[in-house]
Amino acid sequence: MATAERARNRVDTRDFLSVDGQLNDEELMIRDNVRTFVSAELLPRVPEWYELGTLDPAVARELGKLGLLGMHLTGYGCAGSSAVAYGVTCLELEAGDSGLRSLVSVQGSLAMFAIWRYGSDEQKNEWLPRMARGEAIGCFGLTESDAGSDPAAMRTVARRDGSDWVLDGTKMWITNGSIAEVAIVWARANEGVHGFVVPTDTPGFSANEVKGKLSLRASVTSELVLDGCRLPADALLPQAQGLGAPLSCLNEARYGIVWGAIGAARSCFESALEYSLGREAFDKPIAAYQLTQAKLAQMVVEVSRGHLLALQLGRLKDAGQIRPEQVSLGKLANVNAALGVAREARTVLGANGITLEYPVMRHANNLESVLTYEGTAEIHKLVVGNAVTGIAAFR
């Protein structure tokens, strides 16, 4: 079959089930703008960032100019976009690299959302406009080395000293930690868990970048150290009471992962498809062989199914009807699907699949981190299991 005829017989490989037909004009415009920006401005730089194990902090300002930071929040310079618009943004960013989507997720759905939802008017006015423009980068300090899936076991403490608060402890695996101007830190006090807005130039606060990562290399990951970190009374997030507050922030970020994982999967599928059409073995493209087509077919099944799942959750979220366990199902399903697509795509590319010339191994490595952050696969299985049985099996 001639190349032109083959092209006429092919569907839109980026949207096999025409899911984009369910998007409104604004969502499509945002999707197209982000896709173009990632392709033209970020993808050429991602392999170098990944190889060096870093991310240029100036990217935050570039994303801010596009209105992508805290885009699903209202007021304070935020765009007030729909949940679906935020979702397609996460998809296109992670089609570039998980580190790009992580920057936007942590900035908007964790740090900014915590201030927007639980902060005082003064905190919102001081930080949110600057964060929306990318002029101030935020991080979110909840996880500790011994308190990941069980945040109630955190050891970071907050004690009163007169009208001040003094924080002591460490946080681990914190995205943006050593490039942030502000940290949202969660600590245990006598009356329960509190959240604090901590400018990173506060005496007693320090951040040490984690080196030697084999995953999420185009992202900054840090350890936060709080050693007698003294804060004024107004650093407290006044509306945050107990662990429910940070967990609600995590649910916001997990929603973005549901979409983002499919972006990574789509990138791997497209790379495998393009390679298989151009790589010849035994005098014909490897795409002409049944075993290769079986792999490609399964990949597009997973990408399409995950895309539909993400859209359904987005519509539920926009309607105010989404439940945390539904987000858990989405993250569990789509990250597992994306990992499977990445691994299968690597086999299509053969040895070429392990190089930075192609995105597949980079995505596969990144997804190993996405699998366990914002709640491990095991925890999300238990959340879904609790939802369907009514029996909590966490302990």
Please, could you describe this protein's structure?
A 4-stranded antiparallel β-sheet has the order 4-5-9-8, with helices on one face. It has a 3-stranded mixed β-sheet with strand order 3-6-7, with helices on one face. It has a two-stranded antiparallel ribbon with strand order 1-2. A hairpin with a 2-residue loop joins β6 and β7. It has helices spanning 3-9, 25-42, 46-52, 59-65, 83-96, 98-118, 121-132, 244-278, 290-318, 324-349, 360-370, 377-389; strands at residues 74-75, 78-79, 138-141, 157-161, 164-175, 182-189, 192-199, 205-209, 221-231, 280-281, 284-285. It folds into 3 domains: 3-132, Butyryl-Coa Dehydrogenase, subunit A, domain 1 (Orthogonal Bundle); 138-235, Butyryl-CoA Dehydrogenase, subunit A, domain 2 (Beta Barrel), CATH 2.40.110.10; 244-389, Butyryl-CoA Dehydrogenase, subunit A, domain 3 (Up-down Bundle), CATH 1.20.140.10. It is built from 12 helices and 11 strands. With 395 residues, it is α+β, with helices and mostly antiparallel strands.
Provide the CATH superfamily of the largest domain. Butyryl-CoA Dehydrogenase, subunit A, domain 3
Largest sheet: 4 strands, antiparallel
**Strand order in the largest sheet:** 4-5-9-8
Task: Give the strand tally.
Answer: 11
CATH topology of the largest domain: Butyryl-CoA Dehydrogenase, subunit A, domain 3
Structural class: alpha+beta
Mean pLDDT: 94
Tell me the name of the CATH class of the largest domain.
Mainly Alpha
What is the H/E order?
A: HHHHEEHHHEEEEEEEHEEHHHH
Q: How many distinct helices? A: 12
Count of all domains: 3
Strand content: 15-25%
Q: What's the quaternary structure here?
A: single chain
Q: Return residue spans where pLDDT drops below 50 for at least 5 consecutive residues.
A: none
Using the 3D structure, state the CATH architecture of the largest domain: Up-down Bundle
Helix content: 40-55%
Rg value: 22 Å
Roughly how many Å apart are the termini? 59 Å
The general outline is globular
